[in-house]
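Review box. Two proteins, two foldings.
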Amino acid sequence: MKIRIGIVGYGNIGRGVEKVIPQNPDTELAAVFVRKNPERTIIKTPGARVYTFNDAKDLTDKIDVIILCCGSATDLPEEGPKYAAMFNTVDSFDTHAVIPQYFEKINKAAANKTAVIAAGWDPGIFSAMKMLSEAILPDGATYSFWGPGVSQGHSNAIRKVAGVKDAVQYTIPSEKAVKEVRSGTNPQLTTRQKHTRECYVVPEENADLAKIENDIKTMPYYFADYDTTVHFITEEELLKNHSKMPHAGLVFRGGNTGENKHMMEFSLKLDSNPEFTACNLVAYARAAARMSKEGNFGAKTVFDVPLSYLSPKDGITLIRELL
């Protein structure tokens, strides 16, 4: 029997989830939930329907896992606990500094459900790689670099700023910092030394540009700790030059065993950040469904999910083909 998936939010990630579900033969899209005007949302999956957020409570027996495709800045802190109380859920909450608090809120709500949080690629599979590499090389240092590419969470956070009509944010890693890390010297790098942030903002008519720029640059967790540049542009320029969503990233672990040095590196290069994030979410939805059937309830992270639960293949097949 297929895992019936519901999508909450039909933005870039939501559409990505719908796109990749057919690539996973053990899953099917059951429903899409939007905040209002479901009749205006056109989806591509025959047989699936669009509902409002408020309709979800009436469909708990029709959906096995809800994938929450909402923003981390303001939406998931509200929607995450609400849905985790009714459904098994998966999300890509990405505000690293407050993940422990978010975990506790979800864990309290998901008393009889399984809720996998922060299951994108960072946090998510990058987090798993960092844990694995630190376990293997206990004497060393770990580094993460993001970009160059579009950060969905940061772009969404800018769009929440008063006076902003639309925006895209690029994260740019420091080539100098990456080179230092690859050298094996395990340098001490501040947040500001590792990345810069480039913001392309379409303001509302007659908006206070100076205030928008200040609100962005001083935003905690997102921009306050970085050298951030804000460019004000037109809608036409945003559509022409900033409509694609590539991204990339690197995780390093430099360590040593006495006099011998070792370097572990994991990298991603993505044509579509939201579609790759969607791929992660669908895999973790499969895991959430399996864990729920076992009665393994509460909030979970990528550290808690067995690797084999991400795959549609059975254990013997995995051993035969991949071990």
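Next protein.
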Amino acid sequence: MIKFLDLQKINLVHQQEIEEKILHTFRSGWYLLGEEGKNFEDNLSAYTGAKYAVGVASGLDALRLIIRAYMELGIMQKGDEVIVPANTYIASVLAISDNGLVPVLVEPDLDNYNIDVSKIEEKITRKTKAVMVVHLYGRIVFSEELSNIAQKYGLKIIEDNAQATGAEYDGVKSGNLGDAAGWSFYPGKNLGALGDAGAVTTSDKDLAKTIRVLANYGSDQKYINVYKGLNSRLDEIQASVLNVKLKYIDEENDKRRKIAEKYATQLQNPKIILPELPKNEKEHVWHLFVIRTKERRSLQNYLTDKGIQTLIHYPVPPHKQKAYKELNGLSFPVAEKIHDEVLSLPISPVMNEDEVTKVIGFLNGF
């Protein structure tokens, strides 16, 4: 079986360093808000170029806290609107609605699967306060046009950077392109912890401070609560693992790029639509290599029979979920087409050439 993502193998590459770090943390007796967490925040800040990084419990919490902090700072309020791509994972939308704001969905670009920037301006109203861009599948979405729209209407740009750790646009790392970015370090991400973990990066001092306080029960000193906060803190064990793995993220992303290039140049089945390769390879870190086909079920079953594991990211768009029944009547044909046709192939820094060749051979033979 060629696994879609062999997490055990990925982490075993760093086994000795991770075990030493975890043992050090275990013996320290300090498991929250300690040295490892502070070190990781400093390391992530330095890596991205953003002035501040705040470790939190998950990627969803990171996005929730960004919006909540803007509300506490008087920049947003309940009923305001946030533009978000219609084909994102539901977490992006949950972060908006959980704060009492309104998600305004925009169709993606069928070539690169990211939000279609040319369709953003027509969705802006007097209640619009931000655009949440999602670097879907690991590909950066950013442009001068997007920046100009944000400036013209006074909008915040929030990056959902859950899938794009290490990607770059014009020499600037993802997580430092907009006003704030939410990160997920879910185990399956390019930079994955050994459980749930997340972070926020920003160069806005007030925002960073507010997020840090909100994430700690709304408290800036013990038993003194400034806000009605929540408990969302990056624990020391996860921070210690991330401190090890962050050192290798660029090298591992390069391995993903090499596999993606092989797929893109050697897959030649007319039934399969390949993802667009960016002109600058650093704009994509290939968290997922996603193909499209009208025969998805048949293809997935065929690959399973051949011992190749695939996944679907994602089968149901947010506006068709029962959780958002108020959006069920909306129509987003491009997003729906993507959700109906996408299939994610195995890709990881521990895949070997034989495995990649087998995947290509079977796909070409379908």
